[in-house]
Amino acid sequence: MTLLAHPVTSQPVQVHAAFEPRQFFYNINWRSKTYHAGATLTAHHGNGSDFAGFASLLACPDPKRIDIRASVRTVPRQWLVRTYLERAAIHVYAIVDVSSSMFFQGQANLRQQVTEFVSALAWSVTRQGDAFGMRAANDTQQAGWHVMPTFQPGTAHLVAQNITRYWQGTDVHSGASGQGASAMHAAIESIGQQRALVFLLSDFYWPEALMQRVLKAGLPHDVIPVILRDRAATVDLPAFGWARLRDMETGEERSWMLRRRLHQQIAEHAQQQADTLNTRFLNAGTRPPLWLGPDWRAEDVSRHLMETMA
């Protein structure tokens, strides 16, 4: 059930397209299966610099790599050559939830956070020599977000412009109203079965059935959940009085009498939901989620990604 509510009197917040290059770093402990040159270790034998072992000269006819010491120890005698593993690029995807709840406007601007983080991700990926791709969905997959894996260095600027154009062309009070995230699992499935590093961006106000489908679709990949929440939705509520709220995904409106006990219940539920999400992702085999605040720093993102390498 979606618990996020939105004040009916809020005014639209604009999303700017100014791109600020912010680079963070990531790493993996699985081997790439692509053949495009990159920084990730593969299982392909070739002209790399990572020693893999020895092989017969007949199997690997490269006299330049004959190892005399290893050869004289063989019984029966044979020429051995040193073999090395190549390094290659990986595919890194941003899969973005663009359901109605992602249009929430409180202390933070979730759409601006998405724009900045995905643009920084595209910048970081191409700078590291990997391929960046992107998908997005609400109740349907959004073609405007579709980016095939690319190594082009100008991808980050293009991504920032395309995402901003989408936000500015979709009004939360009309076109985006009433949209869930039921097509998120299809967005992940559309990237194929080849293992990739997947950043899954959402507020994760999802029903359990959808969560199960999305996590199942992400099983072939190295998934990093990126959780975006706004404190104004659960913590920084008015201290007392009547508040008229609207559920952004169902459009339902209702009035609440805000009082101290209700504040405690909302805060307790928010904490319980956060703990449940952390446990849910851990049990599903993803990396620990990255809780992305409005003042996020590239250094903190790098630290989280390195410390939680799957």
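[next item in queue]
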Amino acid sequence: MTDTVKDVYSFLIPMIENSLLLPNATVAEIVPFMNVDLAKNAESSDDWQIGQIIWRNIKIPVVSLERIQGKKELGELRRSRIAIVYTLNGNQEVPYVAIMVQGIPRLVPVDEDNGKMLEEDLPTGVKAWVDLGGRKALIPDLDLIENMLVERV
């Protein structure tokens, strides 16, 4: 008999209204917002690509998941962080995406006992909603975000 992996260790990362849930294997690093080169009028526009960050000598586009969902608010930039996330398709043009987040991430185990998929409307950029021990979190649609960025390259 072989043992199976029960828990998927994931980052639960606060955003403006919700929390973001990402398996820790998809997160390269969480970095401060201070090295972001904001796009012109990023704070007043409704563009979802708000700038870029140079991380390990690579320019990575910074996106606002809230803006992809159609919301305008960016939150307080000085308190923001950036989640550097691996894209899923091995695209050399967009190997990473930087997602703007708020607050300090927590590493949490997710399994069938504490994580339950929710049947709710999925706004653009959201792959699924999860109830994680009574806390609602979203799983981003990384394929969509990657494709949106490829169209801009």
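[queue empty]
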